[in-house]
């Protein structure tokens, strides 16, 4: 809890306690985070779709193949965004001092994600707005996912507030 005393007698939130990790001022414009990989399976597509986007071209492989406009099963765009977010978090080598996400903009899905695709990508810091008086910074990222053929399947702009070290 904020303001609690640690076993060393320091106040929680003190500089000594929170000096490790990534803060808003550490994420300079141009910083690129290389993402890991995510193998997409038919089961994962169907399971996600059944719960969150139950359209036949996401949830029913046979019907998607027979009736789907794109000739087979496709991952939901929401699923693709969730995979991007997971890969972004898993790519962090240190804890990030995130306060909260503030938005997703310019989401584009230029190619479908299908069973057997292996997704990877990048996220790049495009803007850093530091607010020392409030002890936080607004960081904006441009994200991209590609499949194993290097075909872009997702682009987006994401922003989040992070705590400032000096704040």
Q: Could you walk me through the main structural features you see in this protein, from its secondary elements to its overall organization?
A:
With 167 residues, the chain is of the alpha+beta class. Helix content is 22%, strand content 32%. The protein is built from 4 helices and 6 strands; from the N terminus they run ββααααββββ. Strands 1, 2, 3, 4, 5 and 6 form a 6-stranded antiparallel β-sheet that branches.
Total number of strands: 6
End-to-end Cα distance, whole Å, is 18 Å
The 3D shape can be described as: elongated
Rg from Cα: 20 Å
Structural class based on helices, strands and sheet pairing: alpha+beta
Low-confidence stretches: 1-16
Average pLDDT score: 90
Main sheet makeup: 6 strands, antiparallel
Order of helices and strands: EEHHHHEEEE
Number of helices: 4
Give the helix level as a range of percent. 10-25%
Percentage of residues in strands: 25-35%
Summarize the structure.
With 167 residues, this protein is α+β, with helices and mostly antiparallel strands.
Please name the defining characteristics of this protein.
4 helices; six-stranded antiparallel beta sheet; alpha+beta; single chain; 167 residues; elongated
Q: How do the strands and helices of this protein lay out in sequence?
A:
Elements: E1 32-34, E2 38-39, H1 42-52, H2 56-59, H3 61-67, H4 77-90, E3 98-108, E4 118-131, E5 136-146, E6 152-163
Antiparallel strand pairs: 1-4, 2-4, 3-6, 4-5, 5-6
């Amino acid at each position: 809890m904020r303001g609690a005393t640690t076993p060393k007698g320091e106040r929680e939130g003190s500089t000594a306690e929170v000096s490790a990790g990534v803060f808003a001022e550490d994420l300079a414009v141009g910083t690129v985070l290389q993402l890991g990989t995510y193998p997409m399976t038919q089961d994962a597509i169907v399971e996600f779709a059944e719960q969150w986007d139950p359209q036949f071209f996401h949830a029913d492989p046979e019907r998607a193949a027979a009736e789907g406009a794109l000739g087979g099963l496709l991952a939901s765009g929401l699923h693709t965004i969730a995979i991007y977010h997971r890969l972004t978090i898993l790519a962090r080598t240190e804890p990030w001092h995130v306060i909260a996400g503030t938005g997703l903009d310019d989401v584009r899905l230029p190619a479908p994600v299908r069973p057997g695709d292996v997704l990877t990508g990048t996220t790049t810091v495009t803007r850093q707005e530091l607010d020392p008086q409030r002890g936080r910074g607004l960081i904006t990222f441009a994200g991209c996912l590609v499949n194993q053929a290097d075909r872009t399947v997702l682009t987006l702009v994401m922003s989040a507030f992070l705590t400032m070290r000096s704040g």
